[in-house]
Design brief:
globular, 298 residues, binds guanosine-5'-diphosphate, alpha/beta, binds magnesium ion, Spore Coat Polysaccharide Biosynthesis Protein SpsA, Chain A
C-alpha cells in the first residue's frame, strides 16, 4: 500500500518544497525576488548609451497543427513582452505536415506587422527534436523559447517565464507547480490536471524522480514544452536525438554544463489524441533512456 503511494507522497512533499523554492505566487503577481541582476537588461549601445533590447526567439515546431496554429500565433503577438525589455522574433518550423500548417504560417507571416515571423520547412517529417534544432539554428535572438504549435499552453505565461531569468540561466514552465497553485486541496496525484491521463501524470512523476536520482536536480515537470534557454548555450550543443527526447538531451547537457534551471508555475490545457496529441507512452521510456545516456556521454 505504502509502496503504491510512495511516488505520490514524494512528489507531494517535493511540490511543497518546490513551491517554496520557486516562488509559486508568480502567476498571481507580487514583487520579484531579485537575487541577481536580470541578464537581459544589461547591454548598452556604447555609441548612443541606449539600452539594447534583447531578442526573444520563439521557436514553434509544427506537425499537422493547421487547426490551431493561426489562433496560437495571434495569441503570441498579443503577449506584452516589451515592458519586460524584450523584442521578439517568431520562427515556425513546419515539420513535413500534410495539412495546411505551412499555408496558415505563411499567411500569418505575410500579414503580421507587429512581429518578425519566419517560416521554415523540413521535408520529409523528421520529428519534433529535429524541428526544434532547425529553429535553434535559425534563431537570431539572445534567448530561445520553445512553443508547441497546439493550444495546450498559454502564451500569457511568457511573462512569468521571462521574469524567471532574474533567478536562473534557464527557465522551465511547470504544469505541476501550476496545478498546485490553481487547484488547492488534497489529491492523490499532486500536480495532475483533472483532464490529464493518469499515465501521463505518472510518467511525469517518475521522470522527476529519475532526474533527481541521476542528476541530483529536482525538476517537477521535465516533460514541459515551455523551456526558455540562453541561445548561446543551446546553439553550441551538438544534439544527437530527433524526437520528443531532444528535450531531455538538452536538459542533460544544460545540467552537465552547470547552468541553473528554475521552474515557474504555468497553466495547462491538455488535449486528447482525437484533438491531435501525438506523444506516446513509448516516448516516456525513451526519455528515461535519454536522460541516462547523456548523463555519461555528450
Ligand atoms: N509527434 C510529432 N510532433 C511534432 C513533430 N514535429 C513537430 N511536432 C510538434 O511537437 C509538439 C508537441 O506535440 P504534442 O503531441 O502536443 O505533445 P506534448 O504537448 O509534448 O504532449 C506539437 O507542436 C507538434 O506539432 C513530429 O514529427 N512528430
Ligand atoms: Mg502539445
Amino acid at each position: 500500500m505504502l509502496a503504491q503511494r510512495l511516488p505520490a507522497l514524494l512528489v507531494a512533499s517535493a511540490l511543497l518544497r518546490g513551491a517554496a523554492n520557486h516562488g509559486c505566487s508568480r502567476l498571481s503577481g507580487g514583487s520579484l525576488p531579485v537575487s541577481r541582476p536580470p541578464a537581459y537588461c544589461s547591454d548598452t549601445d556604447p555609441a548612443t548609451s541606449k539600452k539594447i533590447m534583447p531578442v526573444l526567439s520563439i521557436v514553434i515546431p509544427a506537425y499537422n497543427e493547421g487547426a490551431f496554429l493561426g489562433q496560437l500565433l495571434e495569441r503570441i503577438v498579443a503577449v506584452p513582452v516589451a515592458p519586460l525589455g524584450f523584442t521578439t522574433e517568431i520562427l515556425v518550423v513546419n515539420d513535413g505536415s500534410k495539412d495546411d500548417t505551412e499555408a496558415v504560417a505563411r499567411t500569418f507571416a505575410a500579414s503580421c506587422t507587429t512581429a518578425a515571423v519566419r517560416v521554415f520547412t523540413q521535408n520529409p517529417n523528421q520529428g519534433k527534436g529535429k524541428a526544434v534544432q532547425r529553429g535553434i539554428r535559425e534563431a537570431t535572438g539572445d534567448y530561445i523559447l520553445i512553443q508547441d504549435a497546439d493550444l495546450e499552453y498559454d502564451p500569457a505565461d511568457y511573462v512569468p517565464l521571462l521574469e524567471g531569468l532574474r533567478r536562473a540561466d534557464v527557465v522551465y514552465g511547470s504544469r505541476t507547480l501550476g496545478q498546485a497553485v490553481h487547484h488547492r486541496g488534497f489529491t492523490f496525484f499532486p500536480g495532475r490536471h483533472p483532464d490529464q491521463s493518469l499515465g501521463a501524470w505518472l510518467a511525469g512523476a517518475l521522470l522527476t524522480l529519475w532526474t533527481a536520482l541521476i542528476y541530483f536536480r529536482w525538476i517537477t515537470d521535465t516533460l514541459t514544452a515551455y523551456k526558455l534557454y540562453p541561445a548561446r548555450a543551446v546553439k553550441e550543443m551538438h544534439l544527437r536525438t530527433s524526437g520528443f527526447e531532444t528535450d531531455h538531451e538538452i536538459t542533460a547537457k544544460l545540467i552537465r554544463r552547470g547552468l541553473s534551471i528554475v521552474e515557474v508555475p504555468i497553466r495547462y490545457f491538455p488535449r486528447s489524441r482525437e484533438e491531435g496529441k501525438k506523444i506516446k507512452a513509448s516516448d516516456g521510456f525513451i526519455a528515461v533512456w535519454t536522460l541516462l545516456r547523456f548523463r555519461f556521454s555528450d
